[in-house]
């Protein structure tokens, strides 16, 4: 039984600072997961890729993950990839380097899988969490799995009430839709045990720059102005200060571009984003995209970023800038810097040597 604490941080965002329409975003996430689970599962490639990269990073952490919270878990991409054996495609089956990479990845999966005694999945979409129920994976998860539905931004579910409760909190590609990100990070810090680990990912500011610039140029040409067609995103330089203000220490932050190629048109890219539930949810978004703007944007996209194929066709790439962040909750057991003035060697002399 969870114990309710007398003092719980206030989690309700001030409406005047809201940027995203959370109700619309819930519909975006849930619609295709319920109506067409096969298509929804097929377009989960970004979340699956980031889940694998998270597993690789977790494998370097030499401590138990007894009680782990997957915050904004979507359909459970983390645990699905944790329990699925990675295999090489046929064209790379004889590549020794690729064989070693896949072998190491599968070892990492087993290592992380065996360290988690209890995994708690938490997401706002019941339909998305139910999408893959009954799916069989290569390995059974050895620990206990529980699922809960609630609003990530409100942070008011009973499983999030107790402070100092989780050893690890993970969050993959979910935080970029939260209005009050500083408060969400502070709440995550609160539920972690002292010296607990937070490992999160979100889309960074350079995500879909090809789509963004093409739409802006097309709308400026056809309409004489610009509407917010793509959601605002956090930039890499801002993440460190956000984590520090939330109470995290010993930060590790990096970014990686995942480039998805082969889109025949801008419409195909937008359809993928819709199936993923990653379409625009800004409160001030325009209701529709005029056809003439879409046609113009498609041609601009091709001319600026298109990749010409051997048959003369042009395919479009899409860049997803993923920010990876690691932070630790402060603890007296962590290494502490020495007091100022206690050094025995002059830095100037050391550099001169």
UniProtKB/TrEMBL annotation:
One of its GO terms (molecular function) is methyltransferase activity. GO terms for biological process: methylation; mitochondrial respiratory chain complex I assembly. The keyword Membrane does not apply. Keywords: Methyltransferase, Transferase. The keyword Cell cycle does not apply. One of its GO terms (cellular component) is mitochondrion. InterPro entries: Malonyl-ACP_OMT, SAM-dependent_MTases_sf. This is Methyltransferase type 11 domain-containing protein.
